[in-house]
């Protein structure tokens, strides 16, 4: 085995660091042409209403298939896109594609559902939110209530009044808003009642550990907050029947997670819904 002295350890650390930096630089550089080359795609994940046993909505999630690096995860490339500002054209593209696809589903497959798109804090900072959403709705001809924006609690850490104002303006377009990853943002609950949102999404972490009684207590309380503020509640990351049972018994009936389906292409989603429909009518 190699004798690792202090000097060597620093060298290994340096190499690791520069490898990460090089990858980041590569991602930064390649992201610019990725959109033109059609390397970004959109996957759709269903939100299922267990009360009515019907589709409740979908979430649109971005994917990047890099020609050499293969699939790059959003948790990696979204952070880079936020740093470089590329998140703005990428989100503009997402909004337009999702609205177009939703309109297509309505006209061709009799699928009428609300689809959500994740919004980075950078979009609010750019002050382009209203313009981008309005543009996507106008181009597609999609009514606003079929579009939802997912924001995270951490957004409220910046200028809350400005965020509220921007959210109000898009709500005038009938667009819905949900608070994603709820319970992990450590935001004070103090301003929650002032945020114009429609839905709380319980973070996956609580669902994955919901066998623990302490996590069940948190879940129950998030559901209670939602009910008291007149908000809808959705559970994210649902993978097992046990988790569904726990959530239902505590009053949460809309589920999103691998138990139902992983995010899938629009085409696969159409087939998946077709199959569900047949299961109901048979
Ligand atoms: P998110 O908005 O909280 O999305 C949910 C993530 O959980 C997705 O990961 C989804 O694939 C994953 N997931 C869903 N069900 C399950 C489950 O049952 N088990 C487990 N283990 N995971 C599940 P994904 O697609 O990798 O996205 C990660 C994050 O990247 C998203 O978290 C969102 O914050 C961000 N993101 C993705 N697409 C976009 C986008 O177009 N714009 C922005 N700004 N952010 C995006
Ligand atoms: Mg989300
Ligand atoms: Mg989430
Ligand atoms: Mg998340």
SSE topology:
Blueprint (H helix, E strand, L loop, with lengths): L5 H29 L5 E10 L4 E13 L3 E3 L1 H11 L2 H22 L6 E4 L2 H5 L3 H12 L6 E6 L7 H12 L4 E7 L16 E4 L1 H5 L4 H16 L3 E5 L4 H9 L4 E3 L9 H16 L1
Parallel strand pairs: 2-4, 4-5, 5-6, 6-7, 7-8, 8-9
Antiparallel strand pairs: 1-2, 1-9, 2-3
Helix pairs in contact: 1-2, 3-5, 5-6
The structure holds ligand C2E and magnesium ion (MG) (3 copies).
Keywords for this structure?
282 residues, alpha/beta, 49% helix, globular, EAL domain-containing protein
Total helical elements = 10
Distance from N terminus to C terminus (CA atoms, Å) equals: 66 Å
Q: What ligands can be seen in this structure?
A: ligand C2E, magnesium ion
Order of helices and strands: HEEEHHEHHEHEEHHEHEH
The largest β sheet comes out as: 8 strands, mixed, barrel
Structural class label: alpha/beta
State mean pLDDT (0 to 100 scale). Answer: 93
Give the helix level as a range of percent. 40-55%
Low-confidence stretches: none
Shape: globular
